Amino acid sequence: MTFAQKFQLSIGECLLKCEYSPHLLLQPPQPQSYDRDMSCDSNMYPNYSIFGIVAFWVLSVAPYFYAQFILARSRNWHYENDPVGTPEKEAELNSKRGVPAHIWASYQKHTALAADSLVDFPLFASAVIIGTVAAMEPDTLNLYVLIYLALRVIFWVIYIRGSSLICTYIKAGLWLAANTELLFWIYKSGMILKHRQVINI
């Protein structure tokens, strides 16, 4: 038997022993089972904050579409999207078309609410994105989004239903609280990112 044959035979015997004795091999580290530990690790909560951007946008444009719906219904489903000039001229034209005054007032209020909400949309979306980039805790991000959306929904209800002076003060307080939360949110994200290189060029 040549040396090469002896060498091949010894290699074969070694592999055979390792096959029946796995402890002789150096086992690589096994990947962690996240399905088992997800409920125990606070860092493994799913991050739903990005979906809050979609939710806020939908809630913001919904009053506009509702306003168009009630106006078209009062006109016997005759819809016109061309501006006719000032709101006063448009109100006069709608009066001639038989649109009730309360329908026109509701239309104006809902369109104003949609415009007001879309003004705050960029700040909210920026806060969510910056918080995600800063790797804030997912449960914290989710809580911030829920609090903000809750404040906005209450604001919208009072905006549509309320007409007294106290409702005006409540609306202002809700708006201030919601946007203060966003600024605080961005501040916390900035403190996290202050000493971190986010983009490596």
TrEMBL record:
Alphabetical UniProt keywords: Membrane, Transmembrane, Transmembrane helix
Annotated transmembrane regions: 48-67, 118-135, 141-159, 166-187
InterPro entries registered for this protein in UniProt: MAPEG-like_dom_sf (IPR023352)
Protein known as: MAPEG family protein
Species: Polyplosphaeria fusca
